[in-house]
Design a protein that fits this description.
Chain lengths: 374, 110
């Protein structure tokens, strides 16, 4: 029956007004809702060019010993951005998600094209992101199809969505299917979490983590992996995930009785709403200098654009979720390719597109959806 | 020079090598080794550095270690507590000398 459910039906059935504070903290509104020029990728590229005119990512990669530039390796991860709809409006969101983004969400036909492409791709992992991917009406049938194909499925979860009435069964539902839940939590203490994601996020996140624990997550079971993902709440680089993990585990268990399996630390990309904040706070130039100064050649080998395919809500394909938001599409000449056209050989032969934001992934310990890359 | 402290002196710290390159090389190597993970974690060292930066009132160090402590995973409350530790030691160091004062007063007074 999922074919018949529209995004409007879905929103109406949630049991809470998605735009309300009750549904999720909202420290800002989307750039799109505010109709600011920064919505356009060209304006974002221009801002970075002005802040760091000398920055040349391809030259830096070549100088680091990758004479041919970034080349694809094996396709391990099939990442799908199911849409920009979200119950939150985090200040650093690179997708510019929010409750107002009701148009940009994947339809049934495109979900089916993804399922067919996943089969052809040979990827071992299907990584679902958004927005809040769980809000897509086809989310559950997509997860089921991937689990049936024997794929490792990752849900990138903002945690607060698990408290929305219609979603409260998700921890148990995920557990039955062995879905890895990768949750956003900037810090194991409240201050930085609420600063980035909105007042009240921390408290809701802890409640959601407790429910995941109750469903068997975060206790070392490989079928119930609970991963936490931390982005810095400001213009500084991500910490060392291997050093921070033990401390996070000890503190979350001591303060809240919450356990989890692993910690990923990611840098914020200078784009979309984080870029707006960098500009407004006068931090852009300093942040770009920090990224350039921390360029780490050792982080290049593991960059996600080399082993990941990123599919957007409309079926277009990209090197990563960041390039997706900047509309840097995987094309055949000038024609953007659709996931229905997916072909592994063509994916492997493609040129990975880069811009100045890419320095975010090579700074410090490196940064990808799978955490540090160095 | 229109001001004694200039922010660009921090990234240019390395130019101090001009007058004595070998000493600078030794200093920076030692400095780097001090902050490596050891019996103390890099985060504990960063918080100590932040506290000492306040005790010695070095704006360069405050700039550097405010950022560094954040990147090592500390947050504002932890960093503020570290600064209070430095301040308490500074304040206490003054106050404990009051006992000398007290002894003098007792000795001199009737």
């Amino acid at each position: 029956m999922s074919q018949l459910i529209t995004i409007e039906d879905r929103i109406a059935s949630l049991g809470v007004d998605l735009a309300s504070r009750e549904a999720g903290p909202k420290p800002t509104r989307s750039l799109r809702a505010r109709r600011v020029p920064l919505t356009a990728p060209e304006v974002q590229f221009a801002a970075l060019a002005e802040a760091a005119p000398g920055a040349d990512f391809d030259a830096a990669v070549a100088e680091a010993g990758f004479a041919e530039g970034l080349r694809p390796t094996a396709l391990d991860i099939f990442q799908i951005n199911l849409g920009k709809l979200c119950n939150m409006t985090c200040r650093h969101c690179h997708v510019d998600s929010g409750p107002d983004r009701v148009v940009e969400n994947m339809d049934r036909e495109t979900v089916d094209a993804c399922i067919a492409a996943i089969e052809r791709s040979g990827a071992h992992t299907v990584d679902l992101t958004g927005g809040a991917p769980e809000l897509n009406p086809h989310f559950r049938s997509l997860v089921d199809a991937c689990v049936e194909m024997g794929k490792h499925v990752i849900d990138r979860c903002n945690l607060t969505i698990l408290l929305v009435p219609k979603m409260r069964d998700l921890p148990g539902w995920f557990a039955e299917r062995g879905v890895e839940v990768v949750c956003s939590l900037p810090h194991y203490r409240a201050r930085n979490t609420d600063a980035q994601r909105g007042e009240g996020t921390y408290e809701k996140s802890i409640r959601a983590l407790t429910r995941l624990n109750e469903a068997g997550y975060g206790q070392g079971d490989p079928k119930r992996v609970l991963t936490l993902m931390s982005n810095p709440a400001g213009a500084f680089l991500a910490g060392d995930q291997s050093k921070l993990e033990a401390e996070w585990k000890a503190k979350l268990e001591r303060h809240h009785g919450v356990t989890f399996d692993r910690l990923l630390c990611l840098n914020n990309m200078p784009m979309s709403r984080f870029l707006e904040w960098l500009l407004d706070s006068g931090n852009l130039e300093g942040y770009m200098q920090r990224l350039l100064g921390a360029f780490n050649p050792g982080a290049i080998g593991g960059l996600m654009c080399r082993n990941t395919l990123s599919v957007g809500w409309d079926g277009r394909m990209y090197d990563c979720d960041f390039n997706q938001q900047l509309e840097m599409a995987f094309t055949d000449g000038d024609r953007p390719l659709h996931v229905a056209d997916f072909d592994l050989e063509r994916w492997q032969a493609r040129r990975i597109l880069t811009e100045r934001h890419c320095f975010g992934c090579t700074a410090g310990a490196g940064s990808s959806c799978g955490g540090a890359t160095a | 020079m229109d001001t004694y402290y200039k922010p660009e002196h921090l990234p240019n710290f390395g130019t101090i090598a001009e007058g004595a390159p070998e000493l600078a090389e030794k200093f920076f190597a030692w400095y780097g080794a001090v902050f490596e993970e050891g019996a103390l974690s890099t985060r504990e060292k960063s918080l100590i550095a932040l506290a000492v930066a306040h005790a010695v009132q070095c704006p360069y160090c405050i700039d550097a270690y405010a950022k560094d402590a954040l990147e090592k995973g500390a947050d504002l409350e932890q960093m503020t507590e570290a600064v209070h530790v430095a301040s308490a030691i500074r304040g206490g160091a003054s106050l404990v000398h009051g006992v000398q004062m007290l002894e003098h007063v007792h000795k001199l007074g009737m």
